[in-house]
Amino acid sequence: MRDLENSVVPALDIAAMRVEYGVDAGENHPGPETDLDETWLADGWEPLLRTWIEQATSALVADPNAMVLATVEQTDSGPKPATRTVLCKGLSPEGVTFYTNFESFKGRALTVTPYASATLVWPVLGRQVTVRGPVRRVAPEVTEVYWRSRPRGSQLGAWASNQSRPVASRAELDRQMLEMTERFTGVDEIPVPPHWGGFLIQPETVEFWQGRRSRMHNRLRVLLEPGNTDVAAMKVERLQP
Ligand SMILES: Cc1cc2nc3c(=O)[nH]c(=O)nc-3n(C[C@H](O)[C@H](O)[C@H](O)COP(=O)(O)O)c2cc1C
User: Fold this and answer.
1) CATH homologous superfamily of 31-150+192-239
2) CB 3.0 to 4.6 Å from 126: which of 21, 164, 171, 176, for a disulfide?
């Protein structure tokens, strides 16, 4: 940890922090195109989201496929939202896929209320995309393919962690990992844990947001019938910023 008490960094003025989006992309300030309009969606929402993730990757954004995932928890005092970050690990006209523990807080919330909203944000590009719609588990064969691509350490971690449950100490967590490492010693292909797999968000809406000057941003919302991947069936509307 840095020694914050002796730091000479001036006090943060959070209210004064602001960025002007869509400043002209001149030679000295190469930036993304900002004139987002309906023509960008001619081939559907999926190619545009793919392009934006590619451009975020080129801009050296860390985890350009990270998305903040909102789920709904049903409680005695009514439904409550919860958010956390996950990585988009599959993108197709069918929707966006992420992988997690089915027994985690989010896994249980999605089992009871299979609907989610996920936002990818790339502040350096002045862009965000929100995908919202019903959620279903992906086929075990699809999970298997992705599982095989994961490093062995991540596979062991998925076995060792009872995600979202309290644990007495770091030492206890390390002990669980050691136990799984020993359990799978000599096993070449670690199997997919029964409590682990992918969820697919089938978009009902996908909103593309591109920041522009004076807060007059471009917002395009694509309306879809979940499960219908026909580009001709999608509708696009412009929203006020
Ligand atoms: C950049 C980033 C990527 C993450 N990716 C995943 C992921 O793909 N799957 C996952 O289960 N958790 C991922 N996490 C951890 C989650 O944010 C979260 O802590 C965990 O899934 C438990 O969430 P829950 O208790 O709400 O179920 C990621 C965290 C960060 C910061």
Assistant:
1) Electron Transport, Fmn-binding Protein; Chain A (2.30.110.10)
2) 21
